[in-house]
Amino acid sequence: MSQLAAAASATSTGEAVQFWVLGTVAVLGALGTILLRRAVHSALCLAGTMIILAVFYLANGAYFLGIVQVVVYTGAIMMLFLFVVMLVGVTAADSLKETIKGQRWLAAACGLGFGILLIAGIGNASLKHVNGLGKANSGGNVQGLAALIFTKYVFAFEITGALLITAAVGAMVLTHRERTERAATQRELAEARVRGGKQLPPLPAPGVYARHNAVDIPGLLPDGTPSELTVNPTLRARGQIRDVSGEALGELKALEQRSQDWLERTEEEAKK
Amino acid sequence: MNPVNYLYLAALLFTIGAAGVLIRRNAIVVFMCVELMLNACNLAFVAFSRLHGNLDGQIIAFFTMVVAAAEVVVGLAIIVTIFRSRHSASVDDASLLKL
Predict the structure, then answer these.
(1) Which of A69, A170, A190, B28 could be A54's S-S partner, Cβ–Cβ 3.0 to 4.6 Å?
(2) Which of B1, B70, B80 sits opposite A15 (nearest CB)?
(3) pTM for this structure?
(4) Chain A residues near residue B2 by CB distance under 8 angstroms
(5) ipTM of this predicted structure
(6) CATH of the domain at A5
(7) B99 CA to chain A: closest CA distance, Å?
(8) Quick check: A127 and B51 CB within 8 A?
């Protein structure tokens, strides 16, 4: 009898291998989402996890949902996230300073406790009998879903349409910005700049001419220190500035050393 | 392998997402963690649908996806609006009502 129950609840070896391999990757992706500091890396990890979930949907007989997961979640929602990260997240690396003391450890402990509770609950539930979707999917998965959506769930389906329209209008209202005053002309901007008196000429150019002219390398002041003002503020905020002042000084030192060696040798030769 | 393992995986992913919501400070990443929790619920629904042998679980997962899409659109619009007015996407900085 227990063998029969085991046979009913068991799945193929291929699915087991797929579950353990892809499940590990999915958990790693989820951990990467919450642990990586840059929002772009989090988004890419989450996209990977969602694709793996799509594979699991397909393995569970939810063929329509598997495709919708790829198209809607990884295709539309994650790309929307990436767009907003590009729009917002230039300086959006998380600060590591804790505003509430010990909040991170408390949160981790809460998560752990919650996870234990959830998994123990599933472990205690009696889920021995597996029916399988063979009968429900016999007329095709999409046909089966359509029969349910347009009969039993038709009211929820129509309300969903209203929700989507509301969301689209809401997003437009939220991000729309009405210009209440006239845009400043070029002459007014120039006058304001002169009146401000902060930086009248154009900002100094980046790069050390004759050696480097890349935009991420700050120009050197007369005393050899790099000038932060010469680099784009976005690159400054990201910390993507390459400093070559030390390199130049090191090369100068090496040159002096070489000339010393050369001079000593010629002196020795002269002594001979 | 027992299909119940999918439920364990869903519980694990949901827990990781919940911990992320509590730990992270960047509003976009918090939002991504909420998406992770929604996805974990969807996986549980699909697994339940298979365990019970009917398609109702898949229908619920489908509606969850639609609601998640609407939620993402409005949520990201709110984040962009907050970023425009405060020049920060950190959930700690929006503390105007704090004493």
Answers:
(1) A69
(2) B1
(3) 0.77
(4) 9-11, 130
(5) 0.92
(6) 1.20.120.1200
(7) 15
(8) yes
